[in-house]
Amino acid sequence: MDYNKRSSVSTVPNTGPIRVGFIGLSSFKGWAIKTHYPAILQLSSQFQITALYNPDIGTALSTIRTLKLSNATAYSTLESFASSANVDMIVLSIQVSKNFETLIPLLEYSKTNPNLKYLFVEWALACSVQEAETIYKMAAERGLQTIISLQGRKSPYILRAKELIHEGYIGDINSIEIAGNGGWYGYERLQKSPSYIYELGKGVDLVTTAFGHTIDLLQYMTGSYFSRINSMVFNNIPEQDVIDEHGNRTGQRVSKTVPDHLLFQGTLLNGNVPVSCSFKGGKPTKKFTKNLVIDIHGTKGDLKLEGDAGFAEMSNLVLYYSGIRANDYPVTNNNNSNGNDSTNNNNNGPNGYDAGKEIMEVYHLRNYNAVNGNIFRLYQSIADFHFNTKQIPHLPTQFIMQGFEFEGFPTLMDALILHRLVDNVYRSNILGSTLDVSSICRYP
Amino acid sequence: MDYNKRSSVSTVPNTGPIRVGFIGLSSFKGWAIKTHYPAILQLSSQFQITALYNPDIGTALSTIRTLKLSNATAYSTLESFASSANVDMIVLSIQVSKNFETLIPLLEYSKTNPNLKYLFVEWALACSVQEAETIYKMAAERGLQTIISLQGRKSPYILRAKELIHEGYIGDINSIEIAGNGGWYGYERLQKSPSYIYELGKGVDLVTTAFGHTIDLLQYMTGSYFSRINSMVFNNIPEQDVIDEHGNRTGQRVSKTVPDHLLFQGTLLNGNVPVSCSFKGGKPTKKFTKNLVIDIHGTKGDLKLEGDAGFAEMSNLVLYYSGIRANDYPVTNNNNSNGNDSTNNNNNGPNGYDAGKEIMEVYHLRNYNAVNGNIFRLYQSIADFHFNTKQIPHLPTQFIMQGFEFEGFPTLMDALILHRLVDNVYRSNILGSTLDVSSICRYP
Where are the compositionally biased (Low complexity) regions (chains A, B) (predicted)? Predict the structure, then answer.
């Protein structure tokens, strides 16, 4: 098991830390302060925040003061921020709908920063597959190593499941079922919720976010993209009741244009495996099952992932495994299976599968904080790559995509492929067609 | 609750029993002797076997002797059997692939039997929707009251679930998920299994049988047909290993043309409800979930049906209900929901839904034998209709279809609608299209 071995970033690297220029970090609120910032703080020998961009310079300065970012400079223009030679990696963590208008000039201006090596963007990359493709191309032309925060790929549960599948513990995959509940797209809306998460086209919705992350993880675990897919997208709850922080209705009703239900089914390229998948929004949440269930049935064992919320990338999960240990597979003895050898056959069972050797295992880290844990592990893998902490011989200085490798991290190319899948999900619904998606992993 | 009240067939009717002419009853083997025969035996004041058809007259005579059918005559030709005036109801329980060639002459010959009133056929009615339509029309022209053995509609679990939905116990249906495991369509085949159940076009397969029965029950419970559907049908296991009765491989491999996996998704006509459904074949069966799971999520409660096999119509099930009692619904008070009334609102919760009043119930008849229990209840409902044991005023002497009524029993029209759905499932897969099925319940 060379892959997936423990990160060595606890070692202090010989070279200086990766200098991070951040767009979207505020000490007041938001995702970055809860997830990216603790990761950078824990990896302080590997990462150092040296620049903050905010058009409101006061906010940037205040964040620097509050977080005591003694090495950081505040920038109020994209041009000055992007061209600062004091930055090795730019992290973008803002509303998806602002990504395109920010990244295009940023990448242009950044040409004057000779040290810039990494660009780290939150999923979703953009509001449309066209925008995503443009961003991808510009970043590639700029020669940057990119990172997309499909951070569920770093979840210990996902990696363990991937490992069990990869090592043959469940045999060939026979079929897969996924059911998720994407919390907030329901009958009610919290008054304090930002309205953009209920507006279609803003890059944050049940399909792009809840389904997007989860199906990326499914592909990553199984090591296969889809060959054909069909989907039906529903907005059955076009109006929501606004509720206050106590759960009381305010009497206000507001319109919702993002979907609240998704039916998706498809076939994995590898093995023509049927995948049934549904995501729903709306409370009451499910009573008799978890809000996230991924069932993977194999010829020699089963895997089940369960989570309390339909957001696999930031939920603490439970992984169940049932099957027989790979090393315990009885030697198959087909030549003797002519009836003369029925005693032996009886021992091993009809499939060379001995039910007596069946085991069940449960993987669960009781106190794992998946919200920042997976982001932390993503930063860890960037450091592993940058400092080659695993001392991998001939490690390239760049790679285009992670694909289904254990090592590395997802890139904008991985993001682009996922954007194409999401785009096909919406198209399948509109066209009323089953679509061939077997070539969406091509380069632009 | 007028519907679904206890059958009164234990009362001895004033008129004589329904005289049954049976095709496919053999004391040696088969489905009929295990299911139809015990039902008729238990309802001996309501049903009496008076005729047996078998081209091999010896088998018919032997069955009459063995079962001591003292009132029964053996017939070796369809013509003599069908024209016998001593028969009120013909029951057909043979291989589906023989239904059409049997029913067409049977219906023709039966014109000389003035007493024939009922025709009872096993599901599936025929091998194709065209054949089913022809049979339906001939039986209608012949003026017969028909019965199809979609017997799951008589399952106490299905009826209780239907009742809970009908009476508003779960509010509006929000989404539905179904996952079934259709046992035998897997990697292995028992040597003694008849080969026709593995050959496509014989009317017995994962889609027609396992899915067909289950989706009929879903429609029946929810009271809605589908508006649009999409499906993908798989034959991922085109060859099976033959195993003997001890579970040992014989070394023989045989071809299989019926599907082993089905992905189905669709939208209910009523409420545009998303339905996600998958059926799989093949062992190992599921480790972490039951082989049949139907999850129905409502705005005010959830229902879950579980069974040990993907054959809802002949499995003993467990029905779980979570929600609030219909009679306990707090009075909705929307006019006051302007914030001035927050104390009251707090009591009732944001949806007029009081979590404190939430209850959970489990329905399970531990020793219920669903294999013949549901068939028995189907016979019971025929007797209820024939003798009007529930003393329903103005009960018509015939009805075309059961549709979604609690009373009555499914007819060939119900069967025809289901055949059309099954046909569309296969067509959707071949065409790669989402299909509009909103008009499949039209009369021919």
Answer: 332-351
